[in-house]
Amino acid sequence: MQRTGQYGVLNIDGKTIVDIEYKGIKFNGLYILAETQTEEAYFDKKGEKVEGKYTGIIEATDAKSYITIDSNNLYGIANEKGEEVVKNEYLYIEYAFNRFFVAYKEGKGLGVIDKDGNVVVDFKYDVLSKVGEHPLLKGKNMEKNTTTVYSKDMNEIVTLESSILDIHNDYVEIFSRKSATFVDIFGEKKEAKEVLKNNKLFAACKDGKWGFVDKDGNVKIDYIYDFVTEFNSYGFAGVEKNGKWGIINEDGNMTCECMYEFDYEEEVIRPMFINKYYKTYTENNEIYYSDEV
C-alpha cells in the first residue's frame, strides 16, 4: 500500500500489518522486506518483525520449500513455514524437480540434496543439470570425461565415457563411439526398437565395430564400420570408416561412398544425412544441406 510517497502492507481483511512509513516494500516468498533510508526491516506474513536473516529467497513450489541466501551469499533451504532445514553452507543451490536440489559444495563440486538436506548424489561433478525439460539429471566429470544420467528418483541409469546426449520429446539417447543407451522420460532403459518404432534397422556394436540389426537382432549390415548413426526419418544413416563418412539407405545400399570428413568440436559426432547430402550451417547459423566434399 502507498500513501503520500510511503509504503506499508495490508492483509486481505484490510488490516495494516506493516505501517505505511517505508520507502519501499519487497516480498521474497517468506518475508516482507520494508526499507527505510538507512536500514531494512523484515516482517512475517502476520506483520511481526523478524531478524533479517536472508537477503534472498527463491520459492521451490513443487517441493514446498524455499532456497535461502544469507548475507554471506551462502545458500540453504527452508520449509514452507519458514523454518530452516538446510543450513546456509552451500555456495549454490538450484531446484531441480520433485524434492531434489542441485547444490555446490566448496572444494568438492556439484551434487544433489533433497528438501531435508540428505545427500542423494555425491558432490563429485563439474556440471550437473536437467536433461532438457525431462525429469532427468546429467552429471559431467571433466577429469574422467564421463557423463552420468540419473532418473527422477536419483537412481543412476548409465555412465558413459566420451559421450553425448541426444534429447527428444519422449526419450533421450546417450551415445559414445562404443555404445548407445536409450532412456525414456521416466528413467527406464529402452531398446532402440522401442523408441525408434518406424525404423526397420538399428545400430549395433560388436567388438568395437558397428553394423545394423533388425527388430529380432538379426545382422542385416555387417559389423564393418568404425561408427554409425541411427536411420533418420528420411530413411538414411551415416556410416564412418577410416575417418570418412558415407550414407546408406534402409535396404543396406550405399547412396554415397565414405568420402566426407567433418571437423567438429565434439569428440563424438553423428552427422545428419539425406541421400547424398549432409546437414550443415551457414555463417548466420541457418540450416542447409550440401554435398561439398
Structure description:
This protein has 293 residues and is mainly β. Helices cover 1% and strands 57% of the residues. The chain has 1 helix and 33 strands. Strand 31 (273-274) and strand 32 form a beta hairpin. The relative contact order is 0.06. The model has no long low-confidence stretch (mean pLDDT 92).
Strand content bin = over 45%
| Radius of gyration of CA atoms, rounded to a whole number | 27 Å
Distance between the termini: 69 Å
Total beta-strand segments = 33
Strand order of the largest sheet: 4-5-6-7
- Please state the average pLDDT score: 92
* Total helical segments: 1
Stretches where pLDDT falls below 50 for ≥5 residues? none
- Major beta sheet summary: 4 strands, antiparallel
By secondary-structure content and strand pairing, the structural class works out as mainly beta
Helical content, roughly? under 10%
General shape: elongated
Summarize the structure.
With 293 residues, the chain is mainly beta. 1% of the residues lie in helices and 57% in strands.
Key terms:
293 residues
Write the layout of secondary structure elements.
Layout: E1 2-3, E2 6-10, E3 16-22, E4 24-27, E5 32-35, E6 40-43, E7 49-50, E8 54-60, E9 65-70, E10 75-79, E11 84-90, E12 92-97, E13 100-105, E14 109-114, E15 119-125, E16 127-131, E17 134-141, E18 146-150, E19 156-161, E20 164-167, E21 171-175, E22 180-184, E23 189-190, H1 192-195, E24 202-206, E25 209-213, E26 219-225, E27 227-228, E28 236-241, E29 244-249, E30 254-260, E31 273-274, E32 277-281, E33 287-290
Antiparallel strand pairs: 1-2, 2-3, 4-5, 5-6, 6-7, 8-9, 9-10, 10-11, 12-13, 13-14, 14-15, 16-17, 17-18, 18-19, 20-21, 21-22, 22-23, 24-25, 25-26, 27-28, 28-29, 29-30, 31-32, 32-33
